[in-house]
Amino acid sequence: MKLRKIDPRKIVVPEVRVTSRFDPETLVMLKDSIKAEGLIAPIICCQVEEKFVLVDGLHRLQEAITQQLPIIDVAVTEGTMIDVLTRNLFMDHIRGKHPVSEMVQVIESLTKDYGLDSDAIAKKTGMTREYVENLQLISRLTPMIRAAIDDGSLKVTPALELTRLKSPEAQEEYFLLYRQFRWNTQTLHEYISERLAILETPPPPMSPAPPPAPHTAECVYCHGQFDLSQLSNPTTCIGCFTDMVRSMLLAQTELAKEVAAAAKEAPSPKE
């Protein structure tokens, strides 16, 4: 790492980074100190190709530009954007005063943009792999829930419970229930487990469909309904067909007469 004098306006600030938060009194002290003594502690940059990219010291850099300092001391090391992000994450993480959402954004960028897995990020930042993987899980939560983590109304442990829900709507539903009814983490865990159990339970097997109704047709002679396999349709001329219909009608009429006569001659039942 080399100490160099650089125009602060030429230093590039990454869009994704972690920035420590100062309380108003400390920020006033910082401004007064720079105004009186200049920039005593150098900011840290990484030289990426021809650019000087900020790693640590955003508040000091901003104040140096505001006070129009022409040159400031900068501790410079060579590296890549991966080095910029991991060193920024490490240095601001150990201070402990920064939004979790910013850490999540840096982890997302290292994972998606630069292809680092949790082991590689942990090695470069000094964090544990479990902590890195927890931040990766939190990155899947909705912006509303991540904002609640930042403002302190939602702790990391219940936030990790919400990551078990894949649907953004379900995440926000259970977050609102957690906050409205003041659940503890165990209660939240149990309710989410119940929901997941319902979603994972296979639906009951469908009952077999009823057998299809048999296809039948009416016999043109006796007018009975028969299965198609019991019917035939031989080639018949109109004359023969007429004769057969007449014969069937005569036969049915004679049969009806015989049944009626038999009924009339039958002896009456004894009283």
Unreliable parts: none
Helix count?
Answer: 11
User: Proportion of β residues?
Assistant: 5-15%
By secondary-structure content and strand pairing, the structural class works out as alpha/beta
Major sheet attributes: 5 strands, mixed
Main sheet: strand order: 1-5-3-4-2
Please state the average pLDDT score: 88
Reading off the top of the CATH hierarchy, the class of the largest domain is best stated as Alpha Beta
Overall 3D geometry? rod-shaped
Key descriptive features of the protein:
Conserved hypothetical protein from pyrococcus furiosus pfu- 392566-001, ParB domain; 7 strands; 52% helix; 12% strand; alpha/beta; five-stranded mixed beta sheet; 3 domains; two-stranded antiparallel sheet; 271 residues
Description:
The chain is an alpha/beta fold and about 270 residues long. The chain has three domains: about 140 residues, Alpha-Beta Complex (Conserved hypothetical protein from pyrococcus furiosus pfu- 392566-001, ParB domain), CATH 3.90.1530.10; about 60 residues, no CATH class; about 40 residues, no CATH class. The strands form two sheets. Strands 1-5-3-4-2 form a five-stranded mixed sheet. Strand 3 and strand 4 form a beta hairpin. Helix 1 packs across helix 2 and helix 8 packs parallel to helix 10. The N and C termini lie far apart (about 130 Å). The mean pLDDT is about 90.
